[in-house]
Amino acid sequence: MDLQSLSYALTQVVHNFGAVAVVGGAIMGRWPQPITLLQQRRMAWLILLGWFLQGASGAGFGAISFAWYGQFPDIHGIALIALYLKVGCAVGGFLLAGAFLRYQGEWPERRQQAVWTGLIVLAVTALVAAAFLRWFS
Amino acid sequence: MKSSNMFILSLIISLVIGNVAEAAEASVTILSPADGATLDLMAQNKVEYEVVPGPQGHHVHFYVDGRETAILRRLVGSHTLGSLAEGPHELCVKVVNRNHTPIGVEKCIDVTVE
Fold this sequence. Notes:
The structure holds 2 protein chains of 2 kinds.
Chain A (H helix, E strand, L loop, with lengths): L2 H28 L6 H33 L7 H27 L5 H27 L2
Helix pairs in contact in A: 1-2, 1-4, 2-3, 3-4
Chain B lengths: L2 H19 L5 E6 L5 E2 L6 E7 L6 E6 L2 E6 L3 E5 L6 E10 L5 E12 L1
Parallel strand pairs in B: 2-8
Antiparallel strand pairs in B: 1-3, 3-6, 4-5, 4-7, 7-8
């Protein structure tokens, strides 16, 4: 077991759990049944943490490559578009979850539901983009 | 020594030995065309290659004039070149890891299309 593979694997573990948090948290916040305000806030914190982990571990993949080989992954075209999408989703998801936690009390029910829907869309988009990033370059 | 310690020790030894055994050195060979070859503008030209990924490599990327044009997942095979403009070109095969990062093992040739 070499250190480089271990670094990639541990980063992947963080990335995977981040993905579970942003997808599962958003779905739980929106469905399958109404949850209390406190539970919604807990979900929003989970999603906020999940997006942070997604961003940090995503950067971690690049950092490990740079540390070992002095260059970042060589990706173009579809993979690059997928990467930009993922970064956009991470930034958007983080800001949206943060805004929810900050302004939830002032927002009408309808807007809160829209935020959860937006978080689901961002999470699913990132998940789909991840597959293209993985298999294209 | 306790049997649990013996087990852990043997596990570590087997992992180390396993790593050494699979650590064949990475390499790339372009079998054809030859370096400096002239390719027919009208022909469907192919690059035949052979790759040993080594312990860190996973698959290869193919480049024309420094621009990646294909991912090659077969380690021994051929790749059909798209249409190339007339003139000199550089063709490269680079070994990359699972994260698509070139590991520094590559082979480049120069060809001229006429």
